[in-house]
Structure formats: C-alpha cells, structure tokens
C-alpha cells in the first residue's frame, strides 16, 4: 500500500523545485510574466499540500477551510497564467465563478459539512483544469503536438480530482471530520505529481518556443515601419516558384534624398512610416508587404490576375500621393514610383521576378515618376498613376 504521507511530501518537494525554477526564469526574463504567475500558483499549491499533510495528522475545522481555499486559489492562479500567456484578458470569467465556489465551500465547511466542502473544491479544480486544457488547445498558436500534450495532462489531472469528489459523493460522505483517505486520493497524489511535473516541463518548452518565435519575428521585422524586411522576403519566397498568378511590385519613393536634405531625416522617417501605413492597408491573405531598405518597398501578390495586381499597385501609388506630412517648412506631399514583375507559366524564381519588377521601376522613373509600370504590358508601360483610389 502506498504511503500517503510520502506521496504528499513528494508532491510538495516537486512543486517547490518547479516553483523555484520558474522564479529563476522570470528573474532572468522579467517580460515572461506568465512564468511568475505560474510560479506563484505552484507555490500556493505547495503550501496547500504542506497544510493538508498537517491537517491529515491533526484535523481542525479552520485548517480545513484554509486547505480547501488554497487548493482552489492555486489552480485559479494557474488558470489565469494560461490566460495571461495566451493574451486572454477577461479574467473575470475564471475569477468570479471560482470565488463564488470558494465562498459556498467555506460556508458548508463552517456549518460542519466538510465533506461537501471537499466535493465543491474538487469540482472547482476539475473545472479549472479542464478550462486550462481547452484554452490551450483552442487559443494556442504554437506546435500542436505540445499543445495536445498540455491539454491531455490537464485533462488527466482534472479527471483525478473529479474522481476524488465522485468517491465522496457516491459514498454520501457529507461530514468527514478528518482528511479524506481513499484510493482516489492516493491516485490523485500520484497523478498530480506526474502531471504537474510534466506541465512544468512543457511550460518551459512553450516559454522557449515563444522566445524563439519573438526573436525570429524581430530579425524579420523592419524596426522603423513594422513591415517585414529583406530577410523575411528571402525566407518566405526565396525558394518559391512564381506562377502566372503571382507577381511582385517594387516601390521607390520619389526624390527621397531631397526630402531628407530639405526637411531632415526625422521627417523622412515619417514619410517612410506613412507609406508603410498605406501599403499595409492593402495587405491581406496572399498579399505581403516588405521594406527592402532605404526608401524601397516590395509587395508580393498571390492568387490574382495581372490586371488585379496592377490595380492594387496603382491604388497604393495614388493613396500615398494624397498623404500630407506636417513639417516646420509647411505641408509635405510625396509620391512613389512602382514597377511590377510577373511569374510565368513555366515558373519563375524570386530573383527573376524582382529583376523584371526593378526594370519596370526604372521605366517608371524615366517616364516621369509618380506612376506604376508593368514592364511586360506594353499598353501599361507609359501609363501614369491613376488619379483616384
């Protein structure tokens, strides 16, 4: 037969080590606030386990209330950490029902129905663990295999607490006077240690994975405009084959050097951000915007005809021409020239499409700027930019 006291102490020791590790991670990466929340939740559960061990040896009504409150509070904090990690801010959906259940539990225990208090608490913890599993699976945007394991472990742990409550309910043990000790409690001790250890390890994995994603996003994002950069263009499209329904538009702001020389680089930065805002309006599924550097931007368009691609590029040119930047020398209007390259039926590489678009861009510059040119469309080679967006 399993030594129940040893199981409880093992759970406390495991939780303490896990909590200390998470506090250490948060200390080195303060931006990982969810790690701090998880560490606090586990620490509350460790205190619960220690007090429950004392309660099993020397039961008292007040200690029973504290033990049950800490159990619900600890798992509530863990549930909130999951919501925090996934960017869910409506904490009231978890806090209010849990506090209500804790109040009912306290009332039942105060009246002497400590068995009812245990049943209510176990039901509350079961619901919180199931909620954690569901929100990780539904809202998680990481590796589905990790999220599946997180949801599975949360569900198994929830089941073990549900069994503890079900045993008391089936036996009609409304009044206990002592800590419950049955096969479900012993099973729950083993399952909780295993699941919480596993969830702790997966929490580290998710933290590491998010850090990698954020680092990758930083290396592929232009800090001035927030658009993707040249590295991202190569990563996403460097190996792609451009077919007949794919195209690339290159935009170059007209007389941008003169803008910097006359109005100053801070104004030039404003102009760049303004164009980025314009091009971002037309970004959608199948349309990605990039800043290559300086005043040069790229728009990759997929699953659309050449006419539609030309229309979008022209609208961007026109829309930017209506933008006004306030300066100390008066309002500043800027224009942009664009060139479009198209994929072919036999498949074309990114470099070849960019070269075609670049040639079209220079044709637009030679034709007087403030226009979009599709180099392989003779009818559009000298077409001025549209005058309405």
TrEMBL record:
It catalyses: 2 GTP = 3',3'-c-di-GMP + 2 diphosphate. SUPFAM superfamilies: Nucleotide cyclase. The chain crosses the membrane at residues 6-29, 36-56, 62-82, 94-113, 119-138, 145-170, 190-209. The keyword Membrane applies. CDD domains: GGDEF. Its EC number is 2.7.7.65. It is an enzyme of class 2 (transferase). It comes from the Bacteria. Residues 244-377 form the GGDEF domain. This is diguanylate cyclase. It comes from Mesorhizobium robiniae.
